[in-house]
Specification:
heterodimer, A: mainly alpha, B: alpha/beta, Rossmann fold, 6-stranded parallel beta sheet
């Protein structure tokens, strides 16, 4: 056992323990660590964005180098602050509209191509898709299961007609696929949370207490 | 029936304590657990391995401290693979929080290689073998702009050097000089790489993701949009195994060390679920 003498390791370990203490019950140590975290995170973010975005990308070019074109983004950005003045608060729609316009314009063609067209192609029963599973003859079986799963799950989310007859059958099969999906997601979530715990325990046992390498 | 009543009223803190013990003991008393490499990770490894000499690997470090246990071992294993095969690396972060962690992984692996290097050619040298581009505003903007010119978008690197003065950046102009993007992220960033960089510029994308988001990424592997997929600590352990067994690169395997803890914790949780369900059905029958 070789306990660390580094004060930063100690601060990190004690704050982690303070957060973990919430598992026992709410207590002042937990709240202290939580408030420290919020304060530090906000302080860090403000200074980072000031020094890495506002200064080099706006204030320096505009006020130090005299590039007057930068007055346009500066003015548009300042319009965000008008929401604090009720009489002109409608002006905030201008920067919001510009941001939305840019992102919607950039994302719709890309999203349709990547998330809808390509995914639909991957569901269609073709020999190329059978081989994509790398499972030999079983590729056909997996592709058919995928095909049925997608159609039945989509039918479950079709609410314009009562789920009776054929639609009732397919939607029931669909809910089975949805439940299997939830089960898989839950299993992965358990693994994720345990992994986070392991990461912190490796820190406690390693750099802090020196019990493991 | 008494046992069922006791189990029903058990304090959740006792469950936490049992879980803690089950996770801690394998860390203190490590045991060897064989790692079976699954096809998604094998595909990822092969995709990196096949990057031609004249092309680079973009490593997108997008994990933050809360995702570090799962994603950092992936980053370290990927860097070991790339440096061993002399694949050029462009590291970057699309968010600001991961910058320090990206630098930490780069520093660790370059030190590992340089500590055993005998000549300048064996060493991993900044500017020649890898560049840390750092961060610029806007993930989508970065993905689209790098397709035109990397040095125009990242005018300075993380350390403040002019990127167009670095030897490596004279060879790597845009995506036409990039063999693969390895996106290590707990968010949707790997999907963004597919939507914006792959759709428009045809770049190959591999993803390293946290377990909690794994199920939403599998479809992209099946369609071939991802060249490989690593999921959580298990995926990282598999990549560590491939790097060590195929390339004989030795180094600490943090993800592999954690597998026994994960296994026992999963068995414990399965036991809890089974016991909980049995007690529920017995109680329901009694009513």
């Amino acid at each position: 056992m070789n306990i660390s003498s580094d004060p930063w390791i100690w601060i990190s370990a004690l704050l982690s323990l303070a957060i973990f203490s919430f598992l026992y019950r709410d207590n002042p140590f937990y709240r202290f660590a939580e408030h420290i975290f919020v304060g530090v995170a906000n302080g860090w973010a403000v200074t980072f964005y000031w020094h890495n975005i506002l200064m080099p990308s706006l204030f320096n070019p505009l006020f130090r180098q005299g590039q007057l074109l930068y007055i346009i983004p500066f003015a548009i950005g300042m319009l965000y602050l008008t929401r604090f003045i009720p009489r002109v608060s409608w002006l905030v729609r201008i920067p919001i509209g510009i941001s939305m316009g840019y992102y919607v314009g950039a994302s719709i063609p890309a999203d349709v191509q990547a998330y809808i067209i390509k995914q639909t192609q991957g569901t269609i029963l073709t020999s190329q898709n059978f081989q994509a599973w790398n499972a030999g003859n079983m590729g056909v079986v997996w592709s058919v299961i995928l095909f049925i799963g997608v159609l039945c799950t989509l039918s479950y989310f079709y609410f314009s007609k009562e789920h009776k007859g054929i639609l009732g059958v397919t939607s029931r099969i669909g809910i089975v696929f949805v439940m299997i999906g939830f089960g898989a997601a839950f299993g992965y979530t358990v693994m994720a949370r345990i992994s986070l715990l392991i990461g912190r325990l490796q820190f406690f046992l390693g750099p802090w207490l020196g019990i493991i390498e | 029936m008494k046992i069922i009543d006791i189990l029903e009223r058990i304090d959740r803190r006792i469950i936490y304590l049992v879980l803690l013990i089950v996770v801690v003991l394998p860390l203190i008393f490590p045991s060897v657990q064989s790692v079976r490499v699954m096809p998604p990770v094998e595909k990822f490894f092969n995709a990196v391995d096949k990057i031609p000499e004249e092309k680079a690997l973009i490593m997108d470090f997008d994990y933050t401290p809360q995702d570090m246990p799962e994603l950092e071992p992936m980053g370290i294993a990927l860097l070991r693979h790339a440096f061993k095969k002399r694949i050029k690396v462009l590291a970057l972060s699309l968010y600001v929080q991961p910058l320090g962690l990206a630098q930490r992984a780069l520093t660790q692996v370059t030190e590992e290689f340089n500590s055993i290097a005998k000549t300048n050619a064996d060493s991993v040298i900044y500017g020649r073998d890898y560049v840390f581009l750092g961060w610029q505003v806007g993930p989508i903007l970065a993905m689209l702009s790098m397709g035109e010119s990397i040095t125009n978008f990242y005018r300075v690197d993380y350390y403040g050097n002019q990127t167009d003065t670095l030897p490596l950046m004279k060879l790597i102009k845009n995506y036409s000089n990039v063999g693969l993007v390895a996106a290590l992220s707990p968010s949707d960033i790997p999907k963004y790489w597919v939507a914006y960089a792959q759709n428009r510029f045809g770049i190959n994308v591999g993803a390293g993701v946290t377990s909690v988001s794994a199920s939403e990424f599998y479809p992209y592997l099946q369609t071939g949009q991802f060249s490989g997929l690593m999921i959580g600590m298990k995926g990282a352990a598999e990549y560590e195994e491939m790097v060590e067994s195929n390339l004989k690169v030795k180094g600490r395997r943090k993800a592999s060390e954690s597998l026994p803890s994960i296994t026992y914790a999963h068995l414990l949780i399965i036991a809890f679920i089974v016991i909980g369900n049995i007690s529920y059905f017995i109680k329901r029958r009694q009513k």
